[in-house]
Amino acid sequence: MGAESSIVNFTSLQKRYGDGPLILDEINLRVEPDDFVSFIGPSGCGKSTVLKLVSGLSPWTAGELTVAGMKPREARDRQAFIFQDATLLPWLTAQLNVELPLRLRGVAAKERIGRARRMLALVGLAGAGGYYPRQLSGGMKMRVSIARALTLTPQLLLLDEPFGALDEMTRNRLNEELLALRAHSPFTVMFVTHSVAEAVFLSNRIVVMSADPGRFHAEVRVDFPDPRRPELRTKPEFQAKVNEVSHLLHEVEIPVPA
Amino acid sequence: MKKDPRFPRWMPPVLSGLIFVALWYGIRVGSGLKSWILPTPWEIIGAAWDERSLLLPAAGHTALGALGGFLLAAGFGFFVSLLLGVSGVLRAGLYPWLLVLQMVPVIVLTPIIILWAGPGMPGIITITWLISFFPIVANLTQGLLSTDRNQVALFRMCNASRFQEMWFLRVPSALPYYLGGLRIAATLAPIGAIFGEYMVGNSAGGSGGLGFLVYSYNTQIKIPALFATALASCLLGFLFVAAVSGLNWSLLHRWHDSFERNDH
């Protein structure tokens, strides 16, 4: 596919903070519209920074980066960001949290309320709109956060270790729900994670990064057919992929001094 | 706060109060001090009853001055904090001078204020405002600058305007700070009003209030009545703090962690 069709396009990109050390170096990547790309690597490899650059929250130093053919900042209304902590506003109910992006864009109250309700129902929280964040479990908060991100029907969803703080059962469940939501209305995903199994289960592409400075070490294609069922996790071919990615991670990991 | 299941909520403060009164009484009896140096609690309550025709309207007068100054401080504090929160330049330019204003002892400024505003309510309100606005500004400004970074990023991602970011994010997230500042101001406002009245009481045309009674009882050496005035001031202060606590509860209990129930 050509550069015109890709939604995110990195060309020889470099990033450093001020006069500090190089954070990212020689980043080249094309993300296609139907991609689910996961980024995995040792901490400090700059994988979260990759998402910040795409969202326009942080500038880069050299090279090129376009989102939907535009500068990242100009493409903000095509993307949504999900943070590790659900980042809900604690003084708003779940319903009002989901309405927030619509409210900030000046969507009329009636449409806003209806859309937020539908989104909450879609993430399985139809009855929970009236609850405040502190009344919700970690998994429920993250579902609200996902609903909020999807109210504007973004083309591109950026997730920065979204399920890292959750227990494994909740995490698996949310992984499956995320894929179901994507089947319901397609969007491109860039996903930062520490979990190899999660990356293998979700993605069609996994980028393994190395640190100091952050570079793309290798890319692994994952071509399990959709829809991916929970049983996939127990299949030998799944385990083989996990091993392959883990092996690549060992190559970039800084060895523990003996 | 953690609730101890062994005691009902009202018991610890009532018990400590009773112990305090018993100690007071013990010291008075044991030391043989005269009533006009240390009156017993009953003598104070008796004096309060005897002086009720003076104390009650004076307390009302003080309450009015304190309330006026408090509301002025709450509004002024909110507005100034917004300015300080919006712009780093304004913050750098104004904050040191607000601090200087706070550093100048009110006792120095009071005669000047009375000179300018006269010995009536406007002067009292100005003094009360002066003594109670700073904790509001300090707290709220801190709150406006403490917004969660990811929440700010979320607003940026939604292309929110500066106004939207301030009004829908920074102000509500700083609300607990504002209320904390108001609570401190509520304890200071009656003190400010009484102090103002005390100073005014000295000049011609003093218009009453608990501060004026302090001045007047003091010159008459009516010591139990002086203690009764202190009691009335305490009650007034409690009323102010209780009102802010009520406001605090009604605005925060639904969502803020400080109202998290233990059994949740």
Question: Could you name the key traits of this structure?
Answer:
heterodimer; A: 258 residues; 3-stranded antiparallel sheet; 9 strands; globular; B: 264 residues; 0% strand
- Average pLDDT value of chain B? 90
Terminal residue distance of chain B: 13 Å
The level of helicity of chain B is: over 70%
Q: What is the H/E order of chain A?
A: EEEHEEHHHEHEHEEH
Low-confidence stretches of chain A: none
Shape of chain A: globular
What profile does the largest beta sheet of chain B have?
none
What structural class do the secondary elements of chain B suggest? mainly alpha
- Poorly predicted parts of chain B: none
Number of helices of chain A: 7
Shape of chain B: globular
Count every helix of chain B, treating DSSP H or I runs of 4 or more residues as helices.
10
Sheet with most strands of chain A: 6 strands, mixed
N→C terminal distance of chain A: 47 Å
- β-strand number of chain A: 9
Number of beta-strand segments of chain B: 0
* Series of secondary-structure elements of chain B, N-terminal to C-terminal: HHHHHHHHHH
Biggest interface pair, counts? A-B, 23 and 23 residues
Strand order of the largest sheet of chain A: 5-6-7-3-8-9
